[in-house]
Amino acid sequence: MNRIYAYILDGIISIENIVFFNNHGYLVAPGMVSPQEVNALKKELATICRGERGAFKGFIPVKNGALDGELTGRYRALHFPHKMSRIFHNFLFHRKITATITQLIGPDVKCMHSQLYIKGPGCKGHAWHQDEKIIPTGDQSLIGAWVALDDASVENGCLWIIPQRQEHLARTVPQYSPEYLESETIDVSAYEAQMIPLEVKAGSVLFYHGYTIHASQPNKTMYCNRAALQCHYMNANAELPWSVDGRGVPVEDMRDIVLITGVDPYQWKGTNNICCPRFEPATDLAHVNDRTKETIRLVKQS
Ligand SMILES: O=C(O)CCC(=O)C(=O)O
User: Fold this and answer.
1) Considering 14, 21, 85, 157, which has the largest number of Cβ atoms within 10 A of its Cβ?
2) What are the contacts of 242-245 at 24+ separation with CB within 8 A?
3) Sites in the chain below the pLDDT cut of 50
4) Does ligand 1 come within 6 angstroms of the Cβ of 204?
5) Max Cα separation, the chain?
6) Are 156 and 224 contacting, i.e. CB atoms less than 8 angstroms apart?
7) Sign of the four-CA dihedral 220, 278, 302, 297
8) Residue 301 C-alpha to ligand 1 middle, in angstroms?
9) Structure pTM?
10) Considering only CA atoms, which residue is closest to atom 9 of ligand 1?
11) By residue range, what is the domain housing residue 105?
12) What is the pLDDT at residue 209?
């Protein structure tokens, strides 16, 4: 199918987009989130990193007067920002994002996960993986909405995908490259000719299916963050056998969820508070060159 249908125009998903998603496992929505909304999220991110929403696990105290970039650059990522801040919680319900998701997985939608990637200069990428391996759903309906808060390019570590809807979880093998955080990867040698980078402007949203194989490269720039907000949703009619953060305790149905649209047939189970919001320090800078390391050191010291 023509790759033009990968693009959701004017924030309104078309039949062609839905067919494209079903065959290729991803869609791109340029400008789905307005510049004002992006600015509000970035401002709130700085507020969280200043400690004004609470000293969540991993918080690094800061001096008064630190600039926004210095505050956020101390972290590689924030886990579960929707549990840190009302603004990020409310963003889970973004009208255009949720309208798109209901067209792709049905009217009853719940959210179980959010993550803010800051990915400053020198931060590693993520090896090839499928999100359903990490967040398994009872009906394979996991969908990620990845919102670019900065322009994302090959240089600063945008997402790469294999544009094919996969039916199964692929086998993983060990990986030793210092460019990636993880110690294993899907063997993608058979897909070399198909991999594509998804370079997008801030405010664009990438939707991808939980079985879609994707990765990201390190941020190889000197000064530019590549921030993105990732929210994961699924069909509320299915259970979520997710043990969270690899703690390995099998669960039948993880109920730390937020109902986004429609009906939750498992409402009678109630909800609980399992996922801990936390900061992840940017400690993964081993491969960057000395000049970048020095810049990062000075920023962290300030
Ligand atoms: O944003 C990134 O660099 C990687 C995101 C990703 O792979 C994921 O959330 O599954």
Assistant:
1) 157
2) 242/112, 242/135, 242/136, 242/137, 244/274, 244/275, 245/275
3) 286-289, 291, 302
4) no
5) 56
6) yes
7) negative
8) 28
9) 0.92
10) 230
11) 3-301
12) 98
